[in-house]
Specification:
Shape: elongated
Largest sheet: none
Number of strands: 0
Length: 68
Amino acid sequence: MPEQTLAVHETMELHELLTFKSVCATKSKAMQTMVTDDDLKLLMQRDVEQSRDALSAMQGFLQRAPLQ
């Protein structure tokens, strides 16, 4: 079965999600230095790690985006 490409609107939505997730991960990483609660700091670290995984997965979808 040939690999399907994303529609243009899907590519735009994916780009928005990537941008938003990237900003969220950056903010969590930056805020960790200001947090004193160990549990909250751990939660923020997990968020950064999960965001990296999600970003990697979403970038894989971008390879299926139409090129113009």
